[in-house]
Amino acid sequence: MSAVPPFPELHGERSRLRAFTDADQPAVFRALSHPEVIRYYGVSYATLEATREQMEWFARLHKEGSGIWWAICRPEAPEEIVGGCGFNNWQQEHRCLELGYWLLPEHWGQGVMSECLPLICRHAFRDMNVHRIEAEVESENLASGRLLLRQGFMLEGRRRECEVKDGAFLSLDYYGLLNAGEAG
């Protein structure tokens, strides 16, 4: 088995993206148990201890080469995370992966994801040999859909009432971004 490559830190003007650490578990729990964050997010935890599963998932993605997730910090406070973003479901044979992200509500509307998404997408295209990035968004999550469109993603379709959440059917919108530097 090949060695795990070093974790790539990414830097923006107002953001630093680094690996999640065990010390981040309380902040991850705070986010993934917060009603406003999990309203449209597919993962949530009821206890701090249960959040350990998420921390192990972050580490396993990178170790196994099936994706990579970054903790989002401010450069002046690298120990304090404000959100997370990254890729999973990396299908290397198809050069395709799935994008996901979340942000603590006190940081909404400040352009954090507008800075972070281009950083990680550029990393995927340049350093991970990815051709296509996909995102699946609950149709009612209008802010996330607008963010993806601003980042150059195309809305490719909607699967109507394809999942059940909290006893109700929900629809999912599918977005895609292709590596513009490659001929299709």
Our count of helices gives 5
Main sheet specs: 8 strands, mixed
Strand segment tally: 8
Q: What do the pLDDT scores average to?
A: 93
* Unreliable parts: none
The side-by-side strand order for the widest beta sheet comes to 1-2-3-4-5-6-8-7
How far from one another are the termini? 33 Å
By secondary-structure content and strand pairing, the structural class works out as alpha+beta
Shape estimate: globular
- Share of helix among residues? 25-40%
Q: β content, as a range?
A: 35-45%
The succession of helices and strands, N to C, reads EEHHHEEEHEHEE
Taking all Cα atoms into account, the compactness measure Rg is 16 Å
Q: Quick summary of this structure?
A:
The protein is of the alpha+beta class.
Report on this model:
The chain is globular. The chain has an eight-stranded mixed sheet with strand order 1-2-3-4-5-6-8-7, sandwiched between helices. The protein has five helices and eight strands, in the order ββαααβββαβαββ. The mean pLDDT is 93. With 184 residues, it is of the alpha+beta class.
Itemize the secondary structure elements and their pairings.
Elements: E1 10-11, E2 16-18, H1 25-32, H2 35-38, H3 52-64, E3 68-74, E4 77-91, E5 96-103, H4 112-127, E6 132-138, H5 142-150, E7 154-165, E8 168-178
Based on the model shown, name its key terms.
about 180 residues; alpha+beta; eight-stranded mixed beta sheet; 5 helices; 8 strands; about 25% helix; globular
